[in-house]
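FW: tagging you since you asked about this chain on Friday. Here's the raw sequence from the shared folder, copied in full. Didn't touch anything.
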Amino acid sequence: MSEFSSLARKERFARIIALVNQQGTVEVESLASLFSCSVETIRRDLRYLEAHGRLVRIYGGASTVQATDIGKSFDKRRDEHVKAKEIMAFKASSMISPGLTIFLDSSSTCYYLARALPDVDLNIVTNSMRILNLLKSNPRYVLIGTGGQIDDKHEDFILAPDVRLSLLDHYEIDLCFISCTGLDLLSGLYEMNAGLAQMKALLVKSSVHTVLLADSSKFDKKTPFFIGPMRLIDYAIDDGDMKNHHRQKLHELDINII
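HL: got it, structure written out here
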């Protein structure tokens, strides 16, 4: 019986690897149904395969190790959760005063914030080509692009492997506004793009204060690439639908809710 179980597990491993490489991503529940086994069995399989470098676990499933970006395009993200993003942009804009140096990441939420910025003198650092184009006609804004490797899919700059942008060492960011694709209040912030996660990690560490703009759909999710722990966040913007237990945990972490 043990030999059959071992053989069956090896065959399941091989089929899971083949599926994830063919499809790019797989879901835990779909795999459990396919192999007629429990969800917990599949989760154990995925943990084992990740530990041996055969796939990357993501929220609800796994992705191929070759994938460095499995996120949605900017245009798709821009049209999701619009009301929540407008609420967060309005609240975040109230934190901005003349003379500050701010960072806006390339998220669709920060694009909404860029549209809501006050018409005052600001230094604006961003890795988003869309935000640079949006704001370039305002003479009161000093715009600084981060530079880096161009990501055509999202029209932004990301970090190439083992590259640090020395330009950012010369700027002290007063307020760093970032979003994420996954937020786990115990472990931290996550992204769907490796280079983007590295870019955000670098900017957060070089900023005086970091403001998180993550709508309620991002909570209790882990996506493939880790940005950093929750202790890096100083403020979290409520999208108007934040759950009470999430609010309580943020307070316990000494994160101010706006």
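FW: The chain has a mean pLDDT of 87.
HL: agreed, and The CA atoms of residues 146 and 166 lie 10 Å apart.
FW: great, closing this out.
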